[in-house]
Amino acid sequence: VPGHDPAALIEQAAAGDRAALARLLTLVERGGPEGRAVARLVHGRAGRAYTVGITGAPGAGKSTLTDALVRHLRKLSEEVGVLAVDPSSSRTGGAILGDRVRMRGHAGDDGVFIRSMASRGHLGGLALATPEAIRVLDAAGLPLVLVETVGVGQVEVAIAGAADTTIVVVAPGWGDAVQASKAGLLEIADVLVVNKADRGGVDAAVQDLEGMLSLVGHDPGGWRPPIVVTAAVDGAGADELWTAVCDHRTWLQSRGELGRRRRLRLAAETREIVRRRLEERAGELTGGDEFDRLVDEVATRRLDPWAAADSLLAASDPSVPAPDDEGDR
Amino acid sequence: VPGHDPAALIEQAAAGDRAALARLLTLVERGGPEGRAVARLVHGRAGRAYTVGITGAPGAGKSTLTDALVRHLRKLSEEVGVLAVDPSSSRTGGAILGDRVRMRGHAGDDGVFIRSMASRGHLGGLALATPEAIRVLDAAGLPLVLVETVGVGQVEVAIAGAADTTIVVVAPGWGDAVQASKAGLLEIADVLVVNKADRGGVDAAVQDLEGMLSLVGHDPGGWRPPIVVTAAVDGAGADELWTAVCDHRTWLQSRGELGRRRRLRLAAETREIVRRRLEERAGELTGGDEFDRLVDEVATRRLDPWAAADSLLAASDPSVPAPDDEGDR
Q: Looking at this predicted complex, what is its ipTM?
């Protein structure tokens, strides 16, 4: 059983210890001071992995497609980490059942590491925990990280869209393509997939997507998302999909876009941490005895609400980090 | 034309100058440093007015009912202020058209002051501006303030519910009562009104509401909202409605509930100001050159996002109030 020391765990994970890697991901998922320590330590060792987001409506076959992609990558001898992010479920001790079921297909293969991320505490926590988990896999030496989101809420779309290349999956049928468009998925798509080619209605779905892409409009010389047809159950199209991802990667790198995108994501992440730190502070400031005392003064008209707020803010010192002993964040 | 000095305007308004009162409300609605100065100054002079919120689905006849109530109150020689809060519309210079149309019915009557509040800047601003506007009317000596909300969104319901007595208006017809229940209106209702008694279907609507009230459940000895039937067009039922409001007021006062409720509202208001102050700060901290410089360090892995956030927070000093030169809030 691996220990709790973040620095030691990171060394072990980087040396190929998968149990240490799993432990690091648990700490990051859980948040709190240990998770934060892990997140801070791995940042300096990360930055090499390429990340691919996979999203789409329920029933479009995201997990099957992810598995087909992993099988294809293993044929190419690429090592790969998979994060399956599901904000709607919460972990109830140990791994989510799906982890083990899915890992079984890759039993004994150290070149694949699959892990689901569930929401512990409030929903927004995953938006911070996911990039941290990606960097853990990155620091452990995995050169590719696939991030599959299970739902299609705002958080899921934001998480899948925060990748170097984002794949949006739709099943054949007009409804699904329209849904994807409405959910804002076309705007974040770098590669579009019509999955379940065995089902029929593929040509119509491709045409629908082409039509909607024309409406969205793309800059001349900009990237126009290619549409790839797959039948994930038997792996058909996985090779073409991976080629499309690699084309996008090359395009990003040739333009200096990759660095620019990553910088924007880190800026958004830092902004979110500042916002959250201040939110924690607001909770502390308006939860204690001093707050009650000031509200008494407001109620008896000796103070006005703005003066009470200023008094609370003046008493706080933001250079002292917020208490950090809670598991949630 | 009244001047801009808040203290002088408050003296004038308290002496019965309606133009000064209107000017104060404009400043509070607009927000910014002058509005804040007004809000702070009136707080100490307020606390005597009784506030009545009026809300309900569109088409239930809220404005007509409010007018009927005002006519009834004028017969009783009660002075009254009316705030019609409409977060969906925004003021485009001067008063909203409706103000003048509605004021015309009370032309020359200094015992009524009607004012609409529109959203300037972001939606949440009205949630802070409304209690401040109520206190302006209060400090000007109006002993009763009716707050009518035009829509039924979360903000509108929150605003109408933040009164001493809240009236929820429904039109006859099962649909409307169910809608009111779904929108969470039954929980905030102190008095229920079935309006448009001329329309038919009144008995059914009253029964629906009775049934739903039974489902909500009330503490033994607690307040069970009475149901009043009105036909606001000809003023029928306004007397009974006002009696119900006065009964509720007496009930609140006999229990010490009135003071408790007002203290809770002031605590919520102070909490909201703290939250907003910190939000302003987050915007300042993550908008400047120092933020860009730190993100560069994060992108080049010399700093991690948590360290960058802490560095920004440490550089800020919350005892210095945020710059206050913007009109919005």
A: 0.83
